[in-house]
Amino acid sequence: METETKHINLSYLSQISGGSKDFELEMMQMFIDQIPDAITNLGIAVDSKDWDRVRAISHKAKSSVGIFGMNEIKDNLFFIEKNAKELSNLDEIKTVFDKTKKLIDEAMEELKNQINS
Hints:
The chain is mainly alpha-helical. It has five helices and no strands. It is 80% helix and 0% strand. The longest helix has 27 residues, at 21-47.
């Protein structure tokens, strides 16, 4: 289950799994199944400037990406969450979201490759 990755680091997942590959695969599959809806909903909230919803969704997604060592994505979600909460840098949130969505798509492909390896 070790293939080259750019966006994910599975060391934390391995640590919390206690070496259970079944648990790791289950967590990866759950992420793959659930994150697309979260990102779609985050995009809708960003486009509609629903900053409370942007903050809530980015906060929840942040912990999910953290499990998989997606640090750049986590940092972007932190930026989105913080600025939506403070109503600051609102013009930058869309740009950061677009970049984050692209990174998540790439990270999901990496996770799929991990599952299939």
